[in-house]
Amino acid sequence: xxxxxxxxxxxxxxxxxxxxxxxxxxxxxxxxxxxxxxxxxxxxxxxxxxxxxxxxxxxxxxxxxxxxxxxxxxxxxxxxxxxxxxxxxxxxxxxxxxxxxxxxxxxxxxxxxxxxxxxxxxxxxxxxxxxxxxxxxxxxxxxxxxxxxxxxxxxxxxxxxxxxxxxxxxxxxxxxxxxxxxxxxxxxxxxxxxxxxxxxxxxxxxxxxxxxxxxxxxxxxxxxxxxxxxxxxxxxxxxxxxxxxxxxxxxxxxxxxxxxxxxxxxxxxxxxxxxxxxxxxxxxxxxxxxxxxxxxxxxxxxxxxxxxxxxxxxxxxxxxxxxxxxxxxxxxxxxxxxxxxxxxxxxxxxxxxxxxx
Length: 357
Prior knowledge:
By secondary structure, the chain is of the alpha+beta class. Helices cover 32% and strands 18% of the residues. The radius of gyration is 19 Å and the shape is globular.
Protein backbone atom coordinates (compact mmCIF):
# COMPACT_ATOMS: atom_id res chain seq x y z
CA UNK A 1 0.00 0.00 0.00
CA UNK A 2 1.03 3.58 -0.68
CA UNK A 3 0.59 4.41 3.01
CA UNK A 4 2.93 1.60 4.09
CA UNK A 5 0.30 -0.08 6.26
CA UNK A 6 -0.52 -3.79 6.18
CA UNK A 7 -4.11 -4.25 4.97
CA UNK A 8 -4.70 -7.39 7.05
CA UNK A 9 -3.70 -5.58 10.25
CA UNK A 10 -5.93 -2.66 9.29
CA UNK A 11 -8.84 -5.06 8.87
CA UNK A 12 -8.12 -6.54 12.31
CA UNK A 13 -8.05 -3.02 13.76
CA UNK A 14 -11.41 -2.28 12.16
CA UNK A 15 -12.75 -5.54 13.60
CA UNK A 16 -11.73 -4.36 17.09
CA UNK A 17 -13.80 -1.21 16.62
CA UNK A 18 -16.75 -3.19 15.27
CA UNK A 19 -16.48 -5.36 18.39
CA UNK A 20 -16.96 -2.20 20.44
CA UNK A 21 -20.33 -1.69 18.74
CA UNK A 22 -21.35 -5.32 19.33
CA UNK A 23 -20.29 -5.15 22.99
CA UNK A 24 -22.22 -1.92 23.61
CA UNK A 25 -19.15 0.21 24.32
CA UNK A 26 -20.59 2.78 21.87
CA UNK A 27 -23.50 2.74 19.41
CA UNK A 28 -21.28 3.75 16.48
CA UNK A 29 -17.98 5.20 15.32
CA UNK A 30 -16.12 6.91 12.50
CA UNK A 31 -12.44 6.12 12.06
CA UNK A 32 -9.87 7.80 9.83
CA UNK A 33 -6.25 6.63 9.69
CA UNK A 34 -3.70 8.23 7.37
CA UNK A 35 0.01 7.73 6.85
CA UNK A 36 2.37 9.62 4.52
CA UNK A 37 -0.60 11.88 3.71
CA UNK A 38 -2.49 8.87 2.30
CA UNK A 39 -5.82 7.82 3.84
CA UNK A 40 -5.53 4.11 4.66
CA UNK A 41 -8.71 3.52 6.66
CA UNK A 42 -11.88 5.64 6.58
CA UNK A 43 -15.03 3.88 7.76
CA UNK A 44 -18.26 4.44 9.66
CA UNK A 45 -20.17 1.73 11.52
CA UNK A 46 -23.15 1.44 13.84
CA UNK A 47 -25.54 4.17 14.83
CA UNK A 48 -25.39 7.93 15.26
CA UNK A 49 -28.50 7.81 17.44
CA UNK A 50 -30.59 5.15 19.19
CA UNK A 51 -33.29 7.18 20.97
CA UNK A 52 -35.83 8.69 20.47
CA UNK A 53 -35.11 7.76 16.83
CA UNK A 54 -32.62 5.45 15.17
CA UNK A 55 -30.08 6.93 12.72
CA UNK A 56 -27.17 5.13 11.06
CA UNK A 57 -23.65 6.49 11.40
CA UNK A 58 -22.13 8.10 8.31
CA UNK A 59 -18.58 9.21 7.51
CA UNK A 60 -19.85 12.82 7.35
CA UNK A 61 -21.24 12.69 10.93
CA UNK A 62 -20.61 15.75 13.11
CA UNK A 63 -19.35 14.94 16.62
CA UNK A 64 -19.30 16.85 19.90
CA UNK A 65 -15.52 16.77 20.41
CA UNK A 66 -15.64 17.62 24.15
CA UNK A 67 -12.05 18.10 25.40
CA UNK A 68 -10.50 17.86 21.94
CA UNK A 69 -11.51 21.53 21.97
CA UNK A 70 -8.51 22.14 24.24
CA UNK A 71 -5.65 21.30 21.83
CA UNK A 72 -7.39 21.91 18.50
CA UNK A 73 -8.87 25.28 19.34
CA UNK A 74 -7.64 26.82 22.59
CA UNK A 75 -4.00 25.70 22.62
CA UNK A 76 -3.59 26.45 18.90
CA UNK A 77 -5.11 29.92 19.33
CA UNK A 78 -2.93 30.63 22.38
CA UNK A 79 0.18 29.72 20.37
CA UNK A 80 -1.06 31.93 17.51
CA UNK A 81 -1.40 34.86 19.93
CA UNK A 82 2.16 34.16 21.16
CA UNK A 83 3.39 34.31 17.56
CA UNK A 84 1.56 37.62 17.10
CA UNK A 85 3.19 39.02 20.25
CA UNK A 86 -0.12 39.54 22.07
CA UNK A 87 1.00 37.33 24.96
CA UNK A 88 3.83 34.96 25.84
CA UNK A 89 4.03 31.59 27.54
CA UNK A 90 5.65 33.38 30.50
CA UNK A 91 2.93 36.04 30.74
CA UNK A 92 1.18 36.10 34.10
CA UNK A 93 -2.56 35.52 34.12
CA UNK A 94 -2.80 38.74 36.16
CA UNK A 95 -1.79 40.73 33.06
CA UNK A 96 -5.17 39.86 31.52
CA UNK A 97 -7.60 39.01 34.31
CA UNK A 98 -8.39 41.03 37.43
CA UNK A 99 -8.05 39.33 40.81
CA UNK A 100 -5.04 37.27 39.73
CA UNK A 101 -2.42 39.58 41.23
CA UNK A 102 -2.86 38.36 44.82
CA UNK A 103 -1.89 35.29 46.85
CA UNK A 104 -1.07 32.06 45.05
CA UNK A 105 -2.64 33.35 41.82
CA UNK A 106 -0.02 36.03 41.15
CA UNK A 107 2.58 33.49 39.96
CA UNK A 108 0.33 31.58 37.56
CA UNK A 109 1.53 31.90 33.95
CA UNK A 110 0.03 31.00 30.58
CA UNK A 111 2.23 27.89 30.32
CA UNK A 112 0.84 26.59 33.63
CA UNK A 113 -2.69 26.74 32.23
CA UNK A 114 -1.65 24.99 29.00
CA UNK A 115 0.12 22.17 30.88
CA UNK A 116 -2.51 21.57 33.59
CA UNK A 117 -0.04 22.51 36.33
CA UNK A 118 -1.54 25.78 37.61
CA UNK A 119 -2.74 24.68 41.04
CA UNK A 120 -6.40 24.93 40.04
CA UNK A 121 -8.85 22.10 40.83
CA UNK A 122 -9.61 19.81 37.89
CA UNK A 123 -13.35 20.39 37.68
CA UNK A 124 -16.29 21.82 39.59
CA UNK A 125 -20.04 21.80 38.79
CA UNK A 126 -20.08 25.57 38.41
CA UNK A 127 -23.11 25.34 36.10
CA UNK A 128 -25.25 24.72 39.18
CA UNK A 129 -24.59 28.22 40.54
CA UNK A 130 -23.14 30.30 37.68
CA UNK A 131 -25.51 31.71 35.07
CA UNK A 132 -23.14 33.62 32.77
CA UNK A 133 -19.47 33.80 31.75
CA UNK A 134 -18.66 36.60 34.19
CA UNK A 135 -19.97 34.51 37.07
CA UNK A 136 -17.79 31.58 35.94
CA UNK A 137 -14.72 33.83 35.83
CA UNK A 138 -15.43 35.25 39.29
CA UNK A 139 -16.01 31.78 40.76
CA UNK A 140 -12.73 30.38 39.35
CA UNK A 141 -10.81 33.48 40.50
CA UNK A 142 -11.96 32.93 44.09
CA UNK A 143 -10.89 29.28 44.28
CA UNK A 144 -8.20 28.10 46.68
CA UNK A 145 -5.02 26.51 45.37
CA UNK A 146 -5.39 22.71 45.27
CA UNK A 147 -1.68 21.93 44.93
CA UNK A 148 1.58 23.87 44.65
CA UNK A 149 2.01 25.69 41.33
CA UNK A 150 4.00 23.58 38.85
CA UNK A 151 4.45 20.69 41.29
CA UNK A 152 2.31 18.19 39.38
CA UNK A 153 -0.17 17.65 36.56
CA UNK A 154 -3.84 17.74 37.46
CA UNK A 155 -5.68 17.43 34.16
CA UNK A 156 -8.82 19.52 34.13
CA UNK A 157 -11.11 22.10 32.58
CA UNK A 158 -10.79 25.23 34.69
CA UNK A 159 -7.41 26.37 33.36
CA UNK A 160 -8.66 26.11 29.79
CA UNK A 161 -11.80 28.04 30.66
CA UNK A 162 -9.46 30.82 31.83
CA UNK A 163 -7.43 30.57 28.61
CA UNK A 164 -10.67 31.13 26.71
CA UNK A 165 -11.27 34.37 28.62
CA UNK A 166 -7.67 35.48 28.01
CA UNK A 167 -7.90 34.78 24.26
CA UNK A 168 -11.06 36.86 24.01
CA UNK A 169 -9.40 39.69 25.96
CA UNK A 170 -6.25 39.90 23.82
CA UNK A 171 -7.98 39.39 20.45
CA UNK A 172 -11.21 41.32 20.98
CA UNK A 173 -13.13 38.38 19.46
CA UNK A 174 -14.98 35.46 20.98
CA UNK A 175 -13.29 32.06 20.60
CA UNK A 176 -15.77 31.01 17.92
CA UNK A 177 -14.90 33.93 15.62
CA UNK A 178 -11.20 33.79 16.48
CA UNK A 179 -10.89 30.08 15.70
CA UNK A 180 -12.76 30.51 12.40
CA UNK A 181 -10.47 33.37 11.36
CA UNK A 182 -7.19 31.80 12.46
CA UNK A 183 -7.73 28.05 11.93
CA UNK A 184 -10.93 26.78 10.36
CA UNK A 185 -11.43 29.15 7.40
CA UNK A 186 -7.76 29.08 6.30
CA UNK A 187 -7.78 25.26 6.44
CA UNK A 188 -11.26 25.06 4.83
CA UNK A 189 -12.55 23.10 7.85
CA UNK A 190 -16.08 24.05 6.89
CA UNK A 191 -17.76 21.54 9.20
CA UNK A 192 -15.92 22.59 12.35
CA UNK A 193 -17.68 25.03 14.64
CA UNK A 194 -19.12 25.83 18.03
CA UNK A 195 -22.94 25.70 18.26
CA UNK A 196 -23.74 23.96 14.96
CA UNK A 197 -26.91 25.01 13.13
CA UNK A 198 -28.80 23.95 10.00
CA UNK A 199 -27.29 21.04 8.07
CA UNK A 200 -24.39 20.64 10.50
CA UNK A 201 -26.79 20.22 13.40
CA UNK A 202 -28.85 17.76 11.35
CA UNK A 203 -25.70 15.66 10.82
CA UNK A 204 -24.77 15.74 14.53
CA UNK A 205 -24.31 12.51 16.46
CA UNK A 206 -26.43 12.14 19.60
CA UNK A 207 -24.70 12.22 22.97
CA UNK A 208 -26.49 11.80 26.29
CA UNK A 209 -30.12 11.66 27.27
CA UNK A 210 -29.35 14.47 29.73
CA UNK A 211 -31.26 14.30 33.03
CA UNK A 212 -30.46 17.96 33.78
CA UNK A 213 -31.79 19.24 30.45
CA UNK A 214 -34.51 16.60 30.10
CA UNK A 215 -33.72 15.58 26.50
CA UNK A 216 -31.38 13.69 24.21
CA UNK A 217 -28.64 16.07 23.13
CA UNK A 218 -28.14 16.30 19.36
CA UNK A 219 -25.96 19.16 18.15
CA UNK A 220 -26.01 20.86 21.55
CA UNK A 221 -22.88 20.78 23.71
CA UNK A 222 -22.86 17.94 26.23
CA UNK A 223 -20.51 19.50 28.79
CA UNK A 224 -22.68 21.19 31.41
CA UNK A 225 -20.27 24.00 32.24
CA UNK A 226 -19.82 24.78 28.54
CA UNK A 227 -23.59 24.79 28.05
CA UNK A 228 -24.08 27.19 30.97
CA UNK A 229 -21.48 29.51 29.42
CA UNK A 230 -23.37 29.66 26.13
CA UNK A 231 -21.64 26.79 24.32
CA UNK A 232 -18.44 28.66 23.36
CA UNK A 233 -15.62 28.01 25.83
CA UNK A 234 -11.93 27.16 26.02
CA UNK A 235 -12.40 23.65 27.37
CA UNK A 236 -15.30 22.17 25.36
CA UNK A 237 -17.97 22.99 22.81
CA UNK A 238 -16.26 22.31 19.49
CA UNK A 239 -18.02 20.13 16.88
CA UNK A 240 -16.34 18.60 13.84
CA UNK A 241 -16.07 15.68 11.42
CA UNK A 242 -13.36 13.08 10.96
CA UNK A 243 -12.39 14.61 7.62
CA UNK A 244 -11.93 18.14 9.01
CA UNK A 245 -9.90 16.70 11.88
CA UNK A 246 -7.75 14.87 9.33
CA UNK A 247 -6.92 18.20 7.70
CA UNK A 248 -5.95 19.65 11.09
CA UNK A 249 -3.89 16.54 11.97
CA UNK A 250 -2.02 16.67 8.66
CA UNK A 251 -1.29 20.35 9.30
CA UNK A 252 0.26 19.36 12.64
CA UNK A 253 2.26 16.53 11.02
CA UNK A 254 3.48 19.07 8.45
CA UNK A 255 4.72 21.21 11.38
CA UNK A 256 2.19 23.97 10.97
CA UNK A 257 1.21 24.18 7.33
CA UNK A 258 -1.30 22.54 4.98
CA UNK A 259 -1.23 23.21 1.24
CA UNK A 260 -0.42 26.90 0.86
CA UNK A 261 -1.68 27.79 4.36
CA UNK A 262 0.58 28.20 7.39
CA UNK A 263 -1.27 28.06 10.71
CA UNK A 264 1.73 27.80 13.07
CA UNK A 265 5.49 28.15 12.69
CA UNK A 266 7.66 25.03 12.60
CA UNK A 267 9.27 25.86 15.93
CA UNK A 268 5.90 26.58 17.55
CA UNK A 269 4.64 23.09 16.69
CA UNK A 270 7.88 21.56 18.00
CA UNK A 271 7.49 23.39 21.31
CA UNK A 272 3.80 22.48 21.59
CA UNK A 273 4.27 18.73 21.25
CA UNK A 274 7.40 18.17 23.35
CA UNK A 275 7.11 17.14 27.01
CA UNK A 276 6.80 20.23 29.23
CA UNK A 277 5.65 18.58 32.44
CA UNK A 278 5.85 15.02 33.70
CA UNK A 279 4.18 13.52 36.75
CA UNK A 280 4.28 9.75 37.15
CA UNK A 281 2.43 8.29 34.18
CA UNK A 282 1.20 11.70 32.99
CA UNK A 283 3.10 13.81 30.48
CA UNK A 284 1.92 16.98 28.79
CA UNK A 285 3.00 19.38 26.10
CA UNK A 286 1.24 22.69 25.48
CA UNK A 287 -2.35 21.52 25.41
CA UNK A 288 -1.36 18.13 24.00
CA UNK A 289 -1.12 14.90 25.99
CA UNK A 290 1.88 12.63 25.44
CA UNK A 291 1.12 8.90 25.18
CA UNK A 292 0.34 6.87 28.24
CA UNK A 293 -0.12 3.73 26.14
CA UNK A 294 3.09 1.87 25.41
CA UNK A 295 1.46 0.91 22.09
CA UNK A 296 2.10 4.40 20.71
CA UNK A 297 5.59 5.70 19.85
CA UNK A 298 6.99 8.05 22.49
CA UNK A 299 7.05 10.97 20.09
CA UNK A 300 3.26 10.75 19.69
CA UNK A 301 0.87 13.37 20.97
CA UNK A 302 -2.88 13.58 21.08
CA UNK A 303 -5.97 14.00 23.22
CA UNK A 304 -9.26 12.39 24.11
CA UNK A 305 -12.75 13.76 24.77
CA UNK A 306 -15.31 12.58 27.33
CA UNK A 307 -17.95 11.98 24.64
CA UNK A 308 -15.75 9.24 23.13
CA UNK A 309 -13.45 11.11 20.77
CA UNK A 310 -9.69 10.89 20.24
CA UNK A 311 -6.82 11.99 18.01
CA UNK A 312 -3.27 10.61 18.09
CA UNK A 313 -0.44 11.81 15.88
CA UNK A 314 3.04 10.30 15.44
CA UNK A 315 5.66 12.34 13.52
CA UNK A 316 8.09 9.40 13.65
CA UNK A 317 5.61 7.15 11.81
CA UNK A 318 4.17 10.03 9.72
CA UNK A 319 0.79 8.80 10.95
CA UNK A 320 -2.40 10.09 12.52
CA UNK A 321 -5.36 8.19 13.92
CA UNK A 322 -8.79 9.77 14.45
CA UNK A 323 -11.42 7.75 16.30
CA UNK A 324 -14.79 9.36 16.96
CA UNK A 325 -17.47 7.49 18.93
CA UNK A 326 -20.67 8.35 20.79
CA UNK A 327 -19.91 6.24 23.87
CA UNK A 328 -22.15 8.23 26.26
CA UNK A 329 -25.28 7.75 24.12
CA UNK A 330 -27.78 7.18 25.51
CA UNK A 331 -26.14 7.45 28.96
CA UNK A 332 -22.73 7.83 30.60
CA UNK A 333 -24.03 5.40 33.22
CA UNK A 334 -23.77 2.51 30.74
CA UNK A 335 -21.02 0.35 32.35
CA UNK A 336 -19.77 -0.86 28.95
CA UNK A 337 -18.88 2.68 27.79
CA UNK A 338 -16.02 2.78 30.30
CA UNK A 339 -14.29 0.03 28.29
CA UNK A 340 -13.44 2.46 25.51
CA UNK A 341 -9.89 2.68 26.89
CA UNK A 342 -9.41 -1.06 26.26
CA UNK A 343 -10.84 -0.75 22.74
CA UNK A 344 -8.62 2.24 21.93
CA UNK A 345 -5.51 0.48 23.26
CA UNK A 346 -6.12 -2.68 21.23
CA UNK A 347 -6.97 -0.63 18.14
CA UNK A 348 -3.89 1.61 18.37
CA UNK A 349 -1.64 -1.42 18.92
CA UNK A 350 -2.85 -2.98 15.67
CA UNK A 351 -2.42 0.29 13.76
CA UNK A 352 1.19 0.59 14.93
CA UNK A 353 1.79 -3.09 14.11
CA UNK A 354 0.40 -2.43 10.62
CA UNK A 355 3.35 -0.17 9.75
CA UNK A 356 5.50 -2.07 7.23
CA UNK A 357 8.16 0.50 6.25
